[in-house]
Fold this protein.
Amino acid sequence: MWNLPNGLTLLRIALIPVFVVIFYLPTPWARPVCALVFTLAGLTDWLDGWLARRLGQTSPLGAFLDPVADKLMVAVALVLLVQADPSMWLALPAAVIIGREITVSALREWMAELGARAQVAVSMAGKLKTTAQMVAIVLLVLGGPVLGQPVRGMGYVLLYIAAALTLWSMFLYLRVAWPLLTAGPRGAADDR
């Protein structure tokens, strides 16, 4: 249960408060360091999965924590970015991305209860979405020019691409789950 991949996932979760504190520091180096922390967290996301498969160290704890850590880091980063720049142009894709994560997480949990979780496994659209949103967040956290090049505009473009891919991947998940969602009563109590 306690292995290197799970340790990297826990490190990613531990980096969230570090990210928040650095984001609000009133120093010129805060944003670049914050972007570095987010990049490090993104790299641990890739590395922990690769190591878990390579070393044969997959575990139920890792399978649970990995997507939770990803969603927490992205949601916190998007909320901070919207708070720092409260515009509709940033809030809209942030709301789409966070809303999709909540919807797909609930869908996966429900499908797991039915024993059909494998039907809503991560798709290529989901992986492309994750890459676009991670790069977008790093660029938006940086905000200002990097090596004389404006990065904020590219961050917005990538965030909108990520939001579009977010909607597309959610549609793919819902399409797979739709027959079960519309199958009628299953005899189990619900939360409505």
Q: What stands out?
A: Residues 162 and 175 are 20 Å apart (CA to CA). The radius of gyration is 18 Å. The chain has two domains: 1-84, 87-182. The mean pLDDT is 86.
